[in-house]
Amino acid sequence: MDRHVGPAMGLLEWFWMGDRELAEASIDELRELGVRHLRFGVSWADFLRDGGPEWYDWLIPTLARHFELLPCFLYTPPSLGETPSTASPPRNLKDYADFLDVCITRYGDHFEYVELWNEANNLIEWNYGLDRGWTKFCEMVGNAASWARQRGKKTVLGGMSPIDPNWLDTMFDNGLMRYIDVVGVHGFPGSYDMPGESWAMRIQRVADVLRAHDHPAELWLTETGYSTWRHDEFEQVRVVAEAGGLPVTRVYLLSLRNLAAERPSQAGFHNDERDYHFGIKLADGRPKLLYRLWATHGLDGVRDAATWPTPLRRDVPVSVVTGGAGFIGSNIATRLAAEGRRVRIVDSLARPGVEDNLTWLRERHGDLIEFSPCDMRDRHHLAEVMGGATEIFHLAGQVAVTSSLDDPITDFDINLGGAINVLEAARRQRNVPPVIFASTNKVYGGLEDIALEVVNRRYQPVDQAWLRHGVSESRPLDFHSPYGCSKGGADQYIADYARCMGVPSVVFRMSCIYGPRQFGTEDQGWVAHFLIRALEGKPITLYGDGMQVRDILFVDDVVEAYLLAARRMDELAGRAFNLGGGPSNTISLLQLLDWIEDLAGRRPEVEWSSWRPGDQRYYVSDTRRFTEATGWRATVGAREGVARLYRWLRAYRGMDEALPQSAGEWSWLSAAS
Q1: Which of 46, 110, 186, 647 could disulfide-link 64, Cβ–Cβ 3.0 to 4.6 Å?
Q2: Rounded to an integer, what distance in angstroms lies between the CA atom of residue 115 and that of residue 136?
Q3: Of 107, 179, 226, 483, which residue is the catalytic one?
Q4: Is 483 part of the annotated catalytic residue set?
């Protein structure tokens, strides 16, 4: 149960007529959040269409089984309007009351309140050009409100947007308010509202009007939210947290899912891009940060998260880690902070689970950890949060080949565009910081020209030189998949900014990294993913034949490489290095299943699927170039490292008593390695 005492938090969802599948999915998702209050639209225009009554006959009782409903009755049927528009006043104003009467008769057992229209002071929702002074509106709504009260319902005046106390005075002057029990207001800070006076102050001015007229109506925030069209999901968290402290009785948040790109908004098809990004989930159902926090930690967790960002300090040196709440980033950050260095985490928290890493860093290192929520696509904000950086570890990115195939534009914007944004932010600092960038072995393509054979259920090169050393940096670049292209392009920009733009930088072309604080998925972080599925007792899907071979590198060795590169930047700037476990730390997918069986006492269940595009059958890093330049070597063997990660995952999930905190606490593993 949430500790906070404040307005009840509900959701607003505009259900599309006939889309039962989406409506049913939305019900499940809202129940996951514990939502009790639901505002939704009952379109007069839709009701008169073929199938309209049947749609609402299903929708309203279905919703009422799970939520306390606030139906908003709106939208003139174009055939009944003064003009053929859903925002038009109807020619016969009493028709609206008749429509409401039909709905109360048909569905009235399912709701206590009726909301009468929506945003009457917004030209898109009510054409007040045809209704100077809102006299037609007041007559129409007054008739409906009076009749609704006689039918035993409480009335909500459709929310004003923008919040305008003068408009409410007009409603009093026109005699409407004697029929109203609740006044709705809408507020969209950072999205639609004009800057200046806070929305709390605007709401208070509405309350002052009610008090001046000695009117007992409650105030509800019937529509609010934040559009993440600029990819700033953390701001959505902040807005909802702030709404919990407003002087209102209820809050309805717009909305559960983004508006699908193929559908028009009320403003028209993509006339206003903000309209498409108000959801707390993406249109395809993937959760944004707010949904994850709410579902996992409740609204108290949302309010706590809103306090995480720290003021930027420019008076002390700071190491910046983009993607610093991610797997590798959090491991670099904790190492830096353990050395007493101040670390600024720049992260959008878009990847599920990384908020736990941020919490862990803050709890472990206190004020040495700064947090600046920022997406790599937001170049203006990024330039600000890079201020004062002494070094930049650029780990943030879109990390999955499969995701790049589904959405290559997002992959391009984050990986290639984001890298340029980081480089430009660095270049424009008074003291230009070095940049160490996480690239990928995918820049070498599919490696189809390397002849392979199968030995002991694993692929290996026929050529003994490839077998002894792996793929070196002299290998021609051959970008496969949008992910390979975006990371490879960024790889080249990083090197060129060192040559031409005065930004000292190093590129690491990374192989398979694994270790504590990794929440691997099927698309990325496969070692952790296999272990997690085994711990959950779920089947593991193998794509291809399972004999693919990779070199794997434990995260502690990765951290050491990054810090070495930062210390030796004068010697290394402008160079690209392979970073992986090398030939001595190779493993096949099937071999990992064997190791899991040894660790867990039973073999995971396996499901098989076809090969995925760009999946290399064999990749092993030749790391000799970096070793020769710095003396770095991988120190954690593959089998030992897998056992360490298995132990950490068990402890993280509460399956063991305690989490190891340092390398010294892993001594119990020596026999397992």
Answers
A1: 110
A2: 17
A3: 483
A4: yes
